[in-house]
Structures are given as C-alpha cells and as structure tokens.
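In this section we walk through a basic example: taking a raw amino acid sequence and producing a predicted 3D structure, encoded as discrete structure tokens. The instruction is simple. Fold the sequence below.
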Amino acid sequence: MVQHGELIGLFIIAKMEGEYTDVHYTYSNEEIALAQGTARLAALVIAQVRLLEEWAATRATEQALQEINRRYDAFISIASHELKTPLTTIKGNVELTLRRLMKLNHNLSAAQLDQLRKPLETALQRAQVQARMIEELLEASRIRMNKFTLSMTPYDLADIVEEATKDMQQAVTDRAIILAPVERPVPVQADIDRIKQVILNYLTNALKYSNPEYPVVVHLTREDGFARVSVQDQGPGIPLEAQKSLWQRFYRVPGIEVRHGSGTGLGLGLYICREFIELHHGHVGVQSTPGEGSTFWFTLPIKETA
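The resulting token sequence is shown next.
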C-alpha cells in the first residue's frame, strides 16, 4: 500500500488450504477491483492515523484538524462507492450460481450438492456483511459532511416497532424476541426507514451478545411528552468506562464475546443510530451492569394530533 509515494504497508490475499481450494482459480476483475479498493481504504486509514499523530505532536490548529477530517470523509465516501460496485456484482453472481445449482439438484447426490452449496452460501454471507459495512461507511460519511436528509412523515411509532420486531424474529427463528404490550397510538413525526434501522441495530446487538437461553425484550412507553423505545438483553453487560465511548465512531467494546452471528463490524452502528435519533430531536442512551445485561433506548418527541 502506497500513500503519497511512500510504502506504508502490505495487503496480502491468499487462498486458504482446504476442501474447496481450487489451485487453478483465477481472481475475477470484480474481485481484483474489490481488493484494490479495500487496500486503498486501508492505506487511507493508516495515513489518517499518522496525520492525527503528527497533528498531536506539532499542536496543529483546529482548522488543520478540520481539513484532515474533511479529506478523510471525502476519501471514505469515494472509496466506499468504489468498493460497492464490484461487491454488488460478486453478490449477484453468487446468488445466480446458487439458483442454478438448485436447479441441478436432481443430477447430484445430497453430499455433492452440499459440498458445492456450502462455500457459495459462506461467500454470500460474507459479501452481505461487507455490503453492510460499506453502507455504514457511506452513511457515516454523509452524516459528517452534512449531506444526509430525512424523509419525515406522521406515523404511529408502535407500528414501526412492531414491524421491526417481526422482521428480526423471522430472520432469527432460533431466538425469542418479546414485544411488551403497547398502548396505541404513539404518534411521531419520523423517517420510518431510519427509525426502523435504529431498532434493528439495537436488536442485532442484543442478539449478538446476549445469552440465547433468555429472550430479548422490546418496550415502547410514553414519558413526559416523549416516546421511549428500549431493547433489553441478558448479555454480559458493559463496563461503565466503556459506556461513555459507545456512541463514538469506530468504537467497539473490548473483550465482549459474540454469541450469535458475526463479530465483524466497524464500530459505526451506534454512532449512526445516535445521529439519526438526534436529527429527530430525540436522545439515545444505555443502562448496563456487568454480568446483568444491557438496555439500549432512544426517545422521540410525541406529536399529538389536534
């Protein structure tokens, strides 16, 4: 990886030895483009860290720091777009291959079909994770560059919470999600998709880190002119010193075991949630005790109709 003519690191891609390794495999143009984009993004992050260290050492002005961040956000946006196109192509090709494979199932034994299907499904899952991470980078960049807008409409928040809970339960059938009884309606002015995204993020984190033997519980209540949505889990809890940093960009709590799904992430999810809610003139927060679980919540102003 080269930045401003200087070698700052190596980005190595190698095939893993195993049952599905093809020694004659040639990387496609889309895969090469994805690797190049990833390397450029990694080089930028390394360069950003170096710039921040230099700024701290030389006590640079606030204006210089803002310029560093502006260039960083601009490059993140460009690099993310470059990654998105080849990744979308790869996802489409894998999905198409899986569909064609299913049509050939009568010509293959169950073992042969399974041997071909598993690596394709794994590749698709990883591509979906990468696509989500790229979308988070783009959203965070748009927020910081003030290029993000909301589509506000009057809506019953209870419907949004119920829909998000049902969607997550259908996606994760081996876990229990309980929606506590809600007194309807709970009228709000909101961007429905963004509020649903926040709820799904809270639920994803709760399921990822909590004990699978216990349900995740969702509450929707009214408090002093605000609607409050909370997601409660029975996970490991979060130390007090870490709670202060949860809503910052790129922050991930160290030493927390992932119990469900992938531990891959950029530490942008909660930062984006906070920005969305604050754009709605609401607030976010967490109540957590190590060993006893966590409750993540957000509030939105209630908009009573005349």
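Looking at the output, two observations stand out. The chain has two domains: 2-144, 153-301. The chain has seven helices and nine strands. In the next section we compare this with other chains.
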